[in-house]
From TrEMBL, chains A, C:
It comes from the Bacteria. GO terms for molecular function: oxidoreductase activity. Gene3D superfamilies: 3.40.50.920, 3.40.50.970. InterPro entries: THDP-binding, Transketo_C/PFOR_II, Transketolase-like_Pyr-bd, Transketolase_C. CDD domains: TPP_PYR_E1-PDHc-beta_like (cd07036). This is Alpha-ketoacid dehydrogenase subunit beta. Residues 10-185 form the Transketolase-like pyrimidine-binding domain. Its cofactor is thiamine diphosphate. It holds the Pfam family Transket_pyr. Keywords: Oxidoreductase, Thiamine pyrophosphate. It comes from Sulfoacidibacillus thermotolerans.
From TrEMBL, chains B, D:
GO terms for biological process: pyruvate decarboxylation to acetyl-CoA. SUPFAM superfamilies: Thiamin diphosphate-binding fold (THDP-binding). It holds the Pfam family E1_dh. PANTHER family: PYRUVATE DEHYDROGENASE E1 COMPONENT SUBUNIT ALPHA, PYRUVATE DEHYDROGENASE E1 COMPONENT, ALPHA SUBUNIT BACTERIAL AND ORGANELLAR. It comes from the Bacteria. Residues 46-318 form the Dehydrogenase E1 component domain. GO terms for molecular function: pyruvate dehydrogenase (acetyl-transferring) activity. Coiled coil: none annotated. Keywords: Oxidoreductase, Pyruvate, Thiamine pyrophosphate. The keyword Oxidoreductase applies. InterPro entries: DH_E1 (IPR001017), PDH_E1_Alpha_Subunit (IPR050642), THDP-binding (IPR029061). Its cofactor is thiamine diphosphate. This is Pyruvate dehydrogenase (Acetyl-transferring) E1 component subunit alpha.
Length: 340, 327, 340, 327
């Protein structure tokens, strides 16, 4: 599906905004709503430049009324519009979860498939910059646990653009999580992987496909977004010790690409799952369970899980840095698995 | 702002249809639930919220609506659905959990979706108001003169979704009409225990929008005020709030012991029955008894056929449970 | 802790209401809030008789304003009151999840332990009686995934009473889930296990302890609330086939009693987890993952999971009955494990 | 309803303290963030919402509060915390993420909890209002004449929590005062883009409670209206709403490019600076310059000491991260 890849580099946020702009040009029904998505361009830049290009009618600043405007996106989608609605931080989900969980996720099913909700709810996730307990979560599993929503969390500018276009074109409701620190914003930590090659035109990256981002034979490390990048760093260090780690970028939580994970585990016989979400009842559990169900005999050692250890995200830098899995923690856990 | 005879007849016939539909449901719902009442038993299991007595709200405004106008309704949705013209057979089949239902039996009585006439409802108090805001927004963005009507109970007016929706619709000047059916209770809780103001029309001021009050469950007044409200919205002048004082003859749901109200209260309400009142009006306009009887017979037949259709339809096969999660 | 067990039989709802009454008598700070908790006695009878006993000041009917009154319970708890607040159906959580997730769960931590929130949020869970997609969920994992809340889900009148008293006395916020069909209400399916022996006086059942409700050697079945009861039924049928199933009633999701599960698996070498919640990213995943981490070498066959197969709860009876794990489904899954 | 000189001096000193606290924070926050601004760097990382210019709201009402009265504040909480008498050293240490902080460094600038003076705040818009309702309820149930004050921005008045809280407090006649600080913006969104009415005082009518408006960031008017409001609540007459027109001198958060407002706007606001206005008032009441200077010096010293304390305190050890989840 992808067009020929050029050499143009974009930050995550610009890749996202470009995806939305392309779709807004292509289809009149696409529009954007959310707090500060207009002149401000979205607090995390996901709508940068859209207001100037498309105006206040199609790039709508909303009151602080998440139930109201996310519900309105549902109502508009039911009428054939294709809204992209931004929930500024995923942490705010609790003020509007009823609209997301009971309506956005279920109406298609409850209507026997007769009502379609082609909408995207995009939201910023992730911590690491001392934004504390109410502004640093990822909540991957909270959303992935409910049937009826596709839940994706791309990690590179290329995927951000391609998966956003795919999400907008998808006739199902999609939760699109972007990681704040992977947006490549000028006022955040400058990470190499928040900038990447992004082709100019339209292309899609299918929702629901994990990607082996680094091949290896000794241990499989599954991660998503920031944890995937850290896993790749850890894999480089592991290589120095002669350990070949295979790293999988999950990309989608729902649909979950079990095959890519199982294939890898069948090859490496060792599994480490890394998550920036809370440990218990989270993504690491689901991946571990799938493997324990479907590839148990392929496992040579117990499954390892690394995630936020069931505490709210603390503000103080040393505490926060300690509870979000680091490159070192991933390295150590993976090495332990191999040396078992 | 007078009602034509045609419209009055439509309203009367629709009210009778609703009333008869609900009465029939009382019986159907009770099937299989005796001698011991069991909410999960019988051909119509689950919760059942009926609207007998609340017909004026639904017909008074739906009389002014077109197919392209949107209606969202709450957990007590039959009167709205019928007044908006939802396919009665498929609606009933849905309530019986059948494959021929609006939602192939997956939705149930609180989850009726008929995109043909732009009707939907849901089981979460006040949650349908934002959906109507969205429909109104879609109409505006598509440059159509369609309106959206959200029905809710007076209890719903205390929830956050109500407030957020009205403010949003007002700042965006959307063609939204919120109709509050004040039937005096949210389940067992009387309005004065739940609501800080006697009339929710007071709250319209907080959004700078017109608010209207309809007293005493009067179908004609509801019709007339709705006409203004719909015109206002359709003309692009923004949202409107209507609160109608209405009556809930039955329990909150079927099986409600109703210990929170005196039986006497119900007798008084029945004395002012809106169906009877509208019938008198028709008579006073010179409609002869046989014509009225014919209207009644016609809608009863429709209702009977709908129930018949529902009963005769098949249950979905269990594989159906796994379908329609995604497109 | 428990007093001598009498022969008095109570339904689940009466056991709950009795627990609350005893604590309200003992401690002035305990009070109840919620929709229809007053004269009505709670839609599922959890506050039956309390209004008559304690009056409108301590048994408060609220407007339909879950964010308002659950938030108020938090504020009152911070001032030393001990509110019990009812969320009528767990399915409505989305209108007030911010108060639960960002405040009730986190304030103790964010305040460095200086603010205590001794409160109980009780809520009705479960389906099986055709109440459709917005009134039939359990959402166990949705709540268990967030740090800072104890999450319990007792299955018998004895435990309902003892765990409710423990929850009220606990200085931490507790999510107390009761299962509608285990309340023993006159208008629901009459199940034997919704009535049980309950001693008269005060006693507590500790939060965070699973219970082996049936011993066996061939396979471990972990369940909670209704699924535990169905597992016991299945175990009886399995016995007829010569299979000895050990059944664990989880009782608490948080804290999770890993040891009881691990001990059992170390004995039976086979694990089936059964859940009335959605399959993916749910309780079955967490239990499976814990075992795959900590008792992998004890497993003789792959772990099996049985839960609602990632669809909203359908209304139509045959569909709903098909997607909630039945006694037969548990029986079959367990037998399969043993015959592997 | 006149202000005693003592009170005026307290207000002035507290306003100066707040202003100086915020100005010092501007500098402290900028440390380690140049030449490239990085929100996560420096001794004070994370978001930083400062309240310079908004002092009148906080001091005008806190002048009437006791230690036993509760205050809940939003994401922009320093002025409220200082006016309520939160321990300045531990507050600052918290903002620096230190073990000696109010929350041992786990909370941060948006999560300051000082149960000693019944102060709390949080990062979710409007979420503190229900907490104040609960505190007011606790006061009532304990038969105390304590009141609870919830501060929010004008943007918060459009959220569901605002509506539910006011209705609840009104039906239960609780001693709650909601103070809306109208600083004209919710981040970049001007009030008229977000709010359907010019004044949120209109909304008080929807709860049948008194609503007051304070114009032009006037500390004296805020003091006087607050006196009435607190008396009303303390007397058991139920909740009150106050909206004060106030000024936000700095960006929504530090680092805000502020493309949504003209710099000119700020100059106009500074001309009417409330600290300067209150100083003139003190002077006109005959307080001599040296006394004023002494007041100022005193509070500056307190602030400097607090920052000093914070800087010299230790970070928590990483084991601390796992503590305090449960009792
Ligand atoms: C958010 C939410 N809270 C509570 C309920 C439970 N509930 C269903 S109907 C109802 C009462 C609704 O009262 P009202 O809005 O007056 O409508 P009525 O039933 O009188 O038609 C309640 C509390 C719900 N469905 N959703
Ligand atoms: C529920 C919720 N939605 C959005 C946000 C993001 N946010 C933080 S402050 C803010 C603006 C608040 O505006 P206002 O209430 O006027 O307070 P001000 O910042 O002007 O003091 C927003 C949108 C949030 N924290 N919580
Ligand atoms: Mg009502
Ligand atoms: Mg503001």
């Amino acid at each position: 599906m992808s067009t020929s890849i050029g050499k143009r580099l974009l930050t995550g946020n610009k890749a996202l905004a470009e995806a939305i702009a392309l779709e807004m040009e292509r289809d009149d029904h696409v529009f954007v709503m959310g707090e500060d998505v207009g002149v401000y361009g979205g607090i995390f830049g996901a709508t940068e430049g859209l207001f100037a290009k498309f105006g206040a009618e199609r790039v709508r600043d909303t009151p602080i009324s998440e139930t109201g405007f996310i519900g309105a996106a549902i109502g508009a989608a039911a009428e054939g519009m294709r809204p992209i609605v931004e929930l500024m931080f995923v942490d705010f989900f609790g003020v509007c979860m009823d609209q997301i969980y009971n309506h956005m996720a279920k109406i298609h099913y409850m209507s026997g498939g007769h009502v379609k909700l082609p909408m995207v709810l995009m939201t910023a996730v992730g911590g690491g910059y001392s934004d504390a307990a109410q502004h640093s979560q990822t909540l991957y599993a909270t959303f992935a646990h409910m049937p009826g929503l596709k839940v994706v969390a791309p990690a590179t500018p290329y995927d951000l653009k391609g998966m956003m276009i795919a999400a907008i074109r998808d006739d199902n409701p999609v939760i699109f999580m972007f990681h704040k620190t992977l947006q490549g914003l000028g006022w955040m930590d400058q990470l190499d992987y928040s900038i990447g090659v992004v082709p100019e035109g339209s292309y899609t990256v299918p929702l629901g496909q994990a990607k082996v981002v680094r091949e290896g034979t000794d241990v499989t490390i599954v991660g998503i977004q920031m944890m995937m990048h850290r896993a790749v760093e850890a894999a480089k260090q592991l290589e120095a010790e002669g350990i070949q780690a295979e790293v999988i970028d999950l990309r989608s939580l729902v649909p979950l690409d079990k095959e890519t994970i199982l294939d890898s585990v069948r090859k490496t016989h060792r599994l480490l799952v890394v998550d920036e979400d809370y440990l218990s009842y989270g993504m690491t559990a689901e991946i571990a369970a799938v493997v324990a169900q479907e590839a148990l005999y392929d496992l040579e050692v117990p499954i390892a899980r690394l995630a936020v250890p069931d505490v709210p995200i603390p503000y103080s830098r040393p505490l926060e840095q300690a509870i979000i899995p680091s490159v070192e923690a991933i390295f150590t856990a993976a090495r332990q698995l191999v040396q078992m | 702002m007078s009602i034509s005879l045609e419209q009055m007849k439509w309203m009367y016939a629709t009210m009778v249809k609703i009333r008869y539909y609900e009465e029939t449901m009382v019986t159907a719902y009770a099937e299989g639930k005796s001698p011991v009442f069991n909410i999960g038993a019988g051909p119509v299991p689950g919760e059942m919220h009926l609207a007998a007595g609340q017909e004026p709200a639904a017909v008074g405004i739906c009389a002014h609506l077109r197919k392209e106008d949107t209606v969202t309704a709450p957990h007590r949705p039959h009167h709205h659905a019928i007044a908006k013209g939802v396919d009665l057979k498929r609606m009933t089949a849905e309530i019986f959990g059948k494959q021929s239902g609006l939602g192939k039996g997956k939705g149930g009585h609180m989850h009726l979706f008929d995109p043909e006439v732009k009707f939907s409802c849901g089981g979460i108090v006040a949650a349908g108001i934002p959906h109507a805001v969205g429909a109104a927004l879609a109409a505006k963005m598509k440059k159509k003169d369609w309106v959206a009507v959200a029905f809710v109970g007076e209890g719903a007016a205390n929830s956050g979704a109500f407030h957020e929706s009205l403010n949003l619709a007002a700042v965006w000047k959307l063609p939204l009409i919120v109709v509050i059916e004040d039937n005096a209770y949210g389940i067992s809780v009387p309005k004065k225990v739940s609501t800080a103001v006697a009339s929710n029309v007071e709250r319209a001021k907080g959004y700078g929008i017109p608010g209207f009050s309809v007293r005493d469950n009067d179908p004609r007044e509801m019709y007339q005020i709705s006409e203004q409200a719909v015109r206002h919205a359709r003309n692009g002048e923004g949202p409107v709030l209507i609160e109608i004082e209405t009556y809930r003859y039955l329990g909150h749901f079927q099986g409600d012991p109703e210990l929170y109200r005196e039986k006497n209260e119900l007798n008084k309400l029945h004395e002012k029955d809106p169906v009877i009142r509208l019938k008198s009006l028709l008579e006073s306009e010179g409609v002869v008894a046989s014509d009225i009887a014919q209207l009644e017979a016609q809608v009863r037949k429709e209702v009977d056929e709908a129930y018949d259709f529902a009963r005769k339809s098949e249950y979905p096969t269990i594989e159906e449970a796994l379908l329609d999660v995604f497109e």
